[in-house]
Specification:
This protein is an alpha+beta fold and about 375 residues long. It has 15 helices and 7 strands.
């Protein structure tokens, strides 16, 4: 009974996290959020869930903008987390400006991907979008030069990758500072891991780069379609629970650049992006303008919000043999529809019995 009650509470907190993202899509979700927050008894649990999904600062600013009254201690905790996120962004911003100076001096072309670009392009303030590190896409031929340039501005290389990680899609992280001031840069030669069949490099982008600005300095990032390819593929990589921050990134990007995105080209050449957006209807909904290009699904798969457990976790967890097989071969229906680009109205039988086992074999070979 206690386990059941605990699970219900956990589902309740997760529902609040989803509604925070939904509030970006439709105002009715904001109206329903206030009474839910007033009923929360275990704020520590809810805040832990918000942190897990990268939504603490977004939630605080939603509470402020809508004048939602919440527990005073919880408000103080959220303010503290916002202060941390603001300070963290200042550190990352300073590091990114130094990276730009070092790379320009060395003549290295680079592209900002993931957090540093998204935070500046689609959020009201960059610190709304928490980040752990800076992801920089460079050409494979410039790896050594890029590492030397970062060393010139105080970054140190960490332990080299060994085994199958020798062919990882990014180099071992380079770190500057210590403890609370530590900043990490990951130099990517590919935007996505080798586990994906798609390849994103500086030399094979779908379209021209886009730019964003920090303190008057212009940075290159991916164009719209390349960005959506990266966001949709990266968000739905293997993880047991899909992080809502990734979904928020996708929805905000599509909304912010809706009129600039070449939707007919996406429909023709990259339909998995539209299928991914369709599968977000039962999770958080989608912004109103997207509904003109993304039809609502008529069949809702099971396992909404769930993904596939990472292979290393399946191997290391103390689970019985049959449970491990289940995690390997039967990830959630919802995630499988997204990952294998199967519309929710269509059967997964071919994927379950052929494509997914073949993908598992490919992942295994990459790790030998």
């Amino acid at each position: 009974m206690n386990n059941c009650r605990s699970k219900n509470k956990d589902d309740e907190y997760h529902a609040v996290c989803r509604q925070v993202v939904s509030s970006f899509c439709e105002h009715t979700a904001i109206d329903g959020l206030s009474p839910k927050l007033k009923k929360i008894q275990d704020w520590d649990n809810l805040i832990a869930r918000l942190e897990q999904h990268g939504l603490a600062t977004v939630t605080l600013n939603l509470i402020r903008s809508e004048n939602i009254s919440i527990n005073s201690d919880a408000q103080k905790t959220l303010v503290g987390l916002e202060t941390r996120d603001r300070h963290r962004w200042r550190q990352l911003q300073s590091a990114l400006l130094d990276v730009d100076t070092a790379f320009r001096k060395s003549g290295i072309e680079f592209t900002c991907i993931k957090g540093s670009a998204i935070a500046n392009m689609v959020y009201p303030e960059p610190h709304y979008r928490p980040m752990d590190d800076l992801d920089i896409l460079i050409s494979g031929s410039e790896q050594k030069e890029a590492q030397r340039a970062l060393a010139d501005v105080g970054f140190m290389t960490t332990m080299p990758y060994t085994g199958h990680l020798r062919h990882h899609h990014h180099l071992p992280p380079m770190v500057r500072g210590a403890n609370g001031s530590k900043v990490m840069v990951e130099l990517h030669t590919q935007g996505l891991s080798r586990d994906h069949s798609l390849v994103i490099t500086n030399d094979n982008l779908v379209g021209p780069r886009y730019q964003f600005e920090i303190n008057g300095v212009e940075f290159n990032t991916l164009g719209h379609i390349d960005h959506l390819i990266l966001l949709t593929r990266h968000t739905f990589s293997r993880r047991l629970e899909i992080r809502l921050l990734g979904i928020m990134d996708i929805l905000r990007y599509c909304s912010r650049y809706f009129n600039e995105i070449d939707w007919p080209r996406i429909q023709k050449q990259h339909p998995f992006i539209l299928n991914t957006l369709r599968c977000l209807y039962p999770v958080t909904g989608i912004p109103e303008q997207l509904k003109s290009v993304v039809p609502e699904i008529t069949t809702i798969p099971s396992g909404i919000g769930e993904g596939m457990m990472p292979l290393t976790e399946i191997r290391s967890r103390r689970l019985d043999f049959w449970t491990k097989l289940k995690y390997l071969f039967l990830p959630s229906e919802w995630w499988t529809h997204i990952f294998y680009n199967v519309p929710p109205e269509k059967s997964l039988l071919t994927v379950r019995f052929f494509y997914h086992p073949m993908r598992l074999l490919r992942w295994l070979r990459l790790r030998l």
